[in-house]
Design goal:
The chain is α+β, with helices and mostly antiparallel strands. Helix content is 37%, strand content 20%. The chain contains 15 helices and 17 strands. The strands form four sheets. Strands 5, 6, 7, 9, 13, 14, 16 and 17 form an eight-stranded mixed beta sheet that branches. Strands 1-2-3-11-10 form a five-stranded mixed beta sheet. It binds the ligand Nc1nc2c(ncn2[C@@H]2O[C@H](COP(=O)(O)O)[C@@H](O)[C@H]2O)c(=O)[nH]1 and manganese (II) ion. It catalyses: a 3'-end 3'-phospho-ribonucleotide-RNA + a 5'-end dephospho-ribonucleoside-RNA + GTP = a ribonucleotidyl-ribonucleotide-RNA + GMP + diphosphate.
Amino acid sequence: MSLLTSEDLVAAGYEPGLQFKTLLAKIAEYEERGIADPKYALKLLKRDVAPPPVKHVMREKPVALAEAISASNKEERANVEAVRKQMHQLLKTPIIARGAIMPDACPVGCSAQAVIPVGGAIAVENAIIPSAHSSDICCSMFATFYEERSSLGKELDALMSSTRFGPEHRHLDDLVHDPVLDEDVWQNRFLTGLRDRARTQIADQGDGNHFAFMGEVDVDESMVALLRLTGHGELAACFTLPPEGSRRYRVLVTHHGSRSLGAHVYKRGQIAAEKHVARVTQHIPAAAAWLDASSDTGRDYWHALEYVARWTKANHRAIHRRFLERIGGKAIAEVGNEHNFVWQRGDTYYHGKGATPAWKDEAGRPQLGLIPLNMAEPILLVLGGDREEFLSFAPHGAGRNLSRTALRRQFPDESSRRTAIERGTAGLDVRWFCGKPDLSETPVAYKNAAQVREQIRHFGLAEIVAEIRPLGCIMAGDSGRSWRDREEELTPKQKRQIQHRAERRRMNQELKDDW
Ligand SMILES: Nc1nc2c(ncn2[C@@H]2O[C@H](COP(=O)(O)O)[C@@H](O)[C@H]2O)c(=O)[nH]1
Ligand SMILES: [Mn+2]
């Protein structure tokens, strides 16, 4: 019998494979030297041939989760319980330091392990988890304050022609150029080949709950004073008020992400992350796969993310610029923030999937953010509360308590749906770009706005500076059936078949990619 068996070697951390040949030669050498004690032989072996580094595995227990959310009925309790369960799975990932959930948290509707829920945030040490910023990288808010130029109806007409909603991209005869497309970034492995996608989707907003909201705000001396007091003197100076009075401004607020540019960057990032964890870990769920931020691949991914952020902001600005040109208006002030993203602070990468950054910026100022609630509620302009225990995030909206399918079940027939839509949009000029209204994007689909606001106050997540009251908005609406709806309507067998095909495509893609 051999001094050490292959089972002993595996138990000692050596991996079966080519290295075993070297190990067996060493063991034979020890035997020739008369060594008969297996323990001693193993000690010598570890000295002579170092075993590969220990592979990371998921932790037994999750790290701390801070919950800035409360539930007041059965539905909400079930919602929080599902969110908590998803976060606990994710928080077992070895590189995650802490997690938090916001008042708008809602579970994601898929059964995969360790998927971050909407309204979830995590602090990650020196690594980026693509899945934790989601495929809609840089989904963000952007507001322009301007002086009213025309009736609401006419301004909304102008807005309709300044942007576009729906799947795909702008018509190729009607593209909008922006200098962000001319940046020298297209050699980055995560961006290469994507310029055409970026080019055809400038001034384009996509579908789902992306929107162009038109509202109004009364800016008064106390708001201006608060902005000055918190270091936002530059923004305060944009507003000129009559003596001891307030001035009303119109505000255009857009909400969208990085369209197919971001979706492709995410897909590539996810493949690279899964490859990385396959090398250095065991049994890490795909949704928790990460890139080492200090590796070449990690740095390239980070640079790609930063570009996607610039592209998305340019996209918002292009829509606002085109709108102001059409109405002959001028931007008085601008504010914006991402809510699906990764932010670096020191060596820690803060990931938010539906979370508004609410920490102090480099100048020590609480950051400004925009929190929408639903199309009939004001959009909140807030100053970050910098609550460290909640990773210094605030919510990014009201969030859903019910999935789209569950909502449809509550309004099963055409007439109850129509009534709910009419009630939810009464007094507002709401335009559905693709033609048909979409119940799942009206106020009834979202959590109670007053309760979300109360939780923002209760947990000290942000301070409200101003409320941008709703006048009207444009959304994609129902363009037939979206991929999300289709997915929800599939049978388990169809879902398995699709998953299987996707997996095969992913494997083929992986074989082609040479990261
Ligand atoms: N002001 C409006 N707010 C809306 C509308 N539709 C949705 N929402 C809110 O936005 C957030 C953002 O959701 P996200 O996860 O897609 O980023 C959502 O939670 C709602 O509270 C609208 O038409 N107008
Ligand atoms: Mn969003």
